[in-house]
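Input chain follows. Return structure tokens only.
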Amino acid sequence: MSLVLVIDDEPGIRSVLHDILTDEGYSVISAEDGIEGLALLRENPVDLVILDVWLPNMGGIDVLKQIKEEYSDLEVIVISGHANIDMAVKAVKLGAFDFIEKPLSLDRLLTICRNAFQLEELRRENTNLKRSLFIEDEIIGESPGIKKVRERIRQSAASDAKVLILGDNGTGKELVAREIHRQSSRASGPFVEVNCAAIPDTLIESELFGHEKGAFTGAVSRRKGKFESADGGTLFLDEIADMSLNAQAKVLRVIQEQLFQRVGGEVQISVNVRLLAATNKDIQAEIRAGRFREDLFFRLNVVPVHVPSLRDRLDDLPLLVEYFMRRYAADDPAGTVRHFSNEAMQVLQKYLWPGNIRELKNFIERINIMSDEESISAETALYYLGEQQVAPAHTDLRDYLDLRLNEAKELFEKWFLETKLQECGYNISQTAGNLGIYPSNLHSKIKKYSIEIKK
């Protein structure tokens, strides 16, 4: 239910507005001057303000300036007498939604209120549409791993259970989260994503819970956090394992109590949010290392979903290639859907795809822009992948039979290290972490086997 704040020094007008707005289904609170009105505004989630221009103690124009400074998106309807029309026009220039003259036309006032709320709804829809742009809306594939992911989505979507989505970068964890939201009873509500890895530790609390004006340097106005923005919908915490232990404790408290405070605030805020989380890290290893709270893991891991890497579902590659080729053909004025030759498809299937679906999508887009071939050749595929990055076919074990034990071990170790380095984009620290060895140890082996590090 929308909350309207009426600020007017005349008891009769406050009473009439309270009655008519309540009859229309709005909640109403009122104040007799600007100082009291601003205090109520800071304590209540107001959706619309009706403000008299002429007020004691603090003029309506000054109140409007304060409101717009602290709550820039909050709409204000100004009430003015005939002698104050110039002031009302000035108020509109300062950001008021509209003004209405005294004596009040209640029909006109209700129409302006409805228009203000419709504008707010349009803003909300526009925000949701912007968030959904360029997001893939289908989970493509028939491999066992993808079928299992679809089944987990179907089983969990109807409930409000928390879901922890695991998988490498680029596998489609956000797509899984959006599909859970789409199939849920919250589909008409907001889907709000937070990339925990992209937010500095000093700002994560403000980003999640919001802040009050003056809470810290740079907090020039009150701001809602992601939890409030997701009220009635779904909040997706991506890369949650990159969140600091302090922020993890705050999130755990919200999950347990369903209450939080804005940074610098004292009012307890309650929201109705479904929580989804994702990470590309080995969460159990993070817990053992003391970097992730085990109690938070248990809270989030109600329904675990593992999204397989592309190299583990190569049977889906032809379907994915066709899907992206058709998608980018839609941008071609001729609308021609091109295809990969059998030889080119074999090249793609030998590639390790360290960037997973995201890398495949970018590669297909690049091919559609840069190549004019109707049937993409193996040479073209190699050229745009980078020939040196295509993995050699797996060595037949019989190739090792004529070698001595140490020779066979070293040959395999070199191939294994080259493969893992390629998967990690030749990032030494990440590769060493995945292998469970120190970077200095990996550097020694790279030097020993004369492994070329590609940039």
